Structures are given as C-alpha cells and as structure tokens.
Amino acid sequence: MTADIPNEAEPKTGLKNPPAGVSESQREGVFVNGFICQHCGLHFNLFSWKANRHRADNTYCPECGRRGAYIHYRRMLSDKTYRDETSKDEIFRHVPWPGSQLISDSVIMASPKKNDR
Ligand SMILES: [Zn+2]
C-alpha cells in the first residue's frame, strides 16, 4: 500500500559528470546477481549486462555499506548481446519494480543515451 507515503517532489535534472558504465557494445547478456549480506542479512538483486562485473569483493551492501562477506548467486537471464525489446528478460522489464514511485533524489540527465531505457 502506498496510501501512507507522501508524494515525492520532482526529480533533479542535469548531471555534469554522467556515470560511465558498460556500453551496449560491451554487453555479454543479461545477468541477475543475488547477494545475501552476511554482515546485516540484507538480500538484494543486482542486474548487469556483464557476467563477472559484480563480485563479492567489489559490491557494497546497500543497507550496511560493507562488502566481501556475501552469499552470491548469479543467473543468466539472456545470452543476447543486444537489447531485445520483445524479451521479458531485459533489465528494463524488472526495473523499476511494478508499482514503484519515482523518488525525488533521482537525477535525470538532460540528454540520456538512446538505449539506456
Ligand atoms: Zn549489509
């Protein structure tokens, strides 16, 4: 239920130094990494286009901020090296989670790359 949550303000616009990530030409497929943090117990999923980009030693827990002590699972959702608009396994099918509310700390780039959404 979202009835108790106040509406979020508009997200910010513009970003002087946009994040550099994996370009679609470097894509190896679609992967979901499941982590269980052994420090605080948080379970979280992390999606990627690279099979080995996210490992226990380079991933920070979004709850406690620590790294290293994880149970780490991975599943390949797609082996396609290109975005398949018709596939249910693309990351954009999973994020945002259905019914999610846009949060005001979002920073929306003025000119996002074409294939980032
Ligand atoms: Zn944690």
Protein architecture, described:
With 117 residues, the protein is mostly beta strands. The protein has a domain at 30-96. It has strands at 12-13, 30-37, 43-48, 70-78, 107-108. The strands form two sheets. It has a three-stranded antiparallel β-sheet with strand order 3-2-4, with no helix packed on it. It has a two-stranded parallel ribbon with strand order 1-5. The chain is globular. The structure holds zinc ion. Zinc ion binds at residues 37, 39-40, 42, 61, 63-64, 66.
Notable features of this structure?
3-stranded antiparallel beta sheet; 5 strands; single chain; binds zinc ion
Distance between the termini: 27 Å
Strand order of the largest sheet: 3-2-4
Helices and strands, in order, run as EEEEE
Q: Which class best fits the helix and strand makeup?
A: mainly beta
Low-confidence residue ranges: none
What is the total tally of β strands?
A: 5
Overall pLDDT: 85
* Residues in helices, as a percent range: under 10%
- Count of helical regions: 0
How does the major sheet shape up? 3 strands, antiparallel
* Share of β-strand residues: 15-25%
Task: Describe the secondary-structure layout.
Elements lengths: L11 E2 L16 E8 L5 E6 L21 E9 L28 E2 L9
Parallel strand pairs: 1-5
Antiparallel strand pairs: 2-3, 2-4
Bound molecules: zinc ion.
Zinc ion (ZN) binds next to loops.
Could you give a quick summary of the protein structure above?
The chain is an all-beta fold and 117 residues long. It has strands at residues 12-13, 30-37, 43-48, 70-78, 107-108.
